[in-house]
Design a protein that fits this description.
The structure is a homodimer. Chain A is built from 10 helices and no strands. Chain A is mainly alpha-helical. In chain A, helix 1 crosses helix 4, helix 4 packs parallel to helix 7 and helix 9 packs antiparallel against helix 10. Chains A and B meet through helix 6, helix 7, helix 8, helix 9 and helix 10 of A and helix 6, helix 7, helix 8, helix 9 and helix 10 of B. Chains A, B: GO terms for molecular function: DNA-binding transcription factor activity; transcription cis-regulatory region binding.
Chain lengths: 212, 212
């Protein structure tokens, strides 16, 4: 791509935006989401309150964009390490659906247990429950793209004849994705590799002796 | 049981408590959880703010007890209608696990789609994500007792030889309970009888052609 000349005002905006993201993520970690305010984010980022209100309607909207940016950065770092673009990582298709699902679910457990993601992701999920607009954006921009990776992997397994042809992939993936999300969000049980291994096995092969 | 003489002060307390529950449930419905305050609950209930703070540490704690009371009332009404105690309803064991699970899951869908439960339950779930103490109480008093009903039904199915003996019932139930909870909380998909029927079928029989 040709090198573009970036005007000063765009560079200043970009600097402000990054400062606002950093401030929002740091504050939600330090003080918790309930005490997070636009005022505090502005003060920490060294920008005026009006700058934030010009770009975002609520603290939930700021935090959602900050979190999406954090996820983008993690992908960019992974791409640099790998030497190629891994932003749109598909779930590996090794031909062994059980092994591939266990691999990605174990990695997700490790990510959920990482404190860097814990506070903002939990705050966004909570805000999404109470504020339908943030909730819809959370689902559309964050949750659903992750779930669609499973949809595509299940479709490949159906094409290979490993998954029953009448199974609806968008529903089937919830058998393993939702238990992990609920345990993590509600802290209703331990999140371990052994746990997700069992969930994947039960989902693929069922918990009964046989089909009826 | 012998008729007890209830002292006036206990009756007054009971009246205040009920007024506080009613006020909290009405307000969370009308103004939303974010704008709910102890002050507003006290004003609506016609009690002093200090009365509420004497009994509960936070608005989340008030709402949790109000919701548990609402659930108790619903059970009491059901008992009266049925002419016997149904407070501790077990999941029916007709010998057909698929039919019994579909029955209870369809009833849960209907309950989640009832606006009376929607606002307070969603608010409690959100508060539980941000406030670990409310979250732990939510899980212990509300979520886990409901999940244990599935544990006991799965154990019976194991004794009858319908469910594989090495399946962990506390994990297996999440295959159908968590997808329903996540769809409802995140509004990430429609909640219908057809949906829960599929989830139950996939969980019982698996989504692949056969065991490995």
């Amino acid at each position: 791509m040709a090198q573009k000349t970036v005007p000063d005002s765009t560079r200043r905006s970009e600097r402000s935006r990054r400062a606002i993201y950093d401030a929002a993520l740091a504050l939600v970690h330090e003080t918790g989401y309930a005490k997070l305010t636009i005022e505090a984010i502005a003060a920490r980022a060294g920008v005026g309150k009006q700058t934030i209100y010009r770009w975002w309607p609520s603290k939930g909207a700021v935090l959602l964009d900050a979190f999406l940016d954090l996820a983008d950065q993690a992908s960019a770092e992974a791409s640099e390490k790998a030497g190629h673009d891994v932003v749109q990582t598909e779930i590996t298709d090794s031909g062994d659906l059980e092994a591939d699902l266990k691999h990605v679910m174990r990695a997700t457990v490790d990510e959920f247990n990482d404190p860097k993601y814990d506070a903002p992701y939990r705050a966004l999920a909570a805000e999404g429950l109470l504020n339908p607009e943030v909730g819809a954006e959370f689902v559309e921009k964050l949750l659903e793209p992750q779930l669609q990776l499973f949809v595509r992997r299940i479709r490949k397994a159906q094409e290979a004849g490993h998954v029953l042809p009448d199974v609806d992939p968008r529903i089937a993936l919830e058998l393993w994705a939702s238990p992990l999300a609920q345990r993590w969000l509600m802290r209703s049980g331990p999140l371990t590799h052994e746990y997700v291994d069992k969930i994947v096995e039960y989902a693929l092969y069922g918990i009964t002796r046989s089909r009826p």
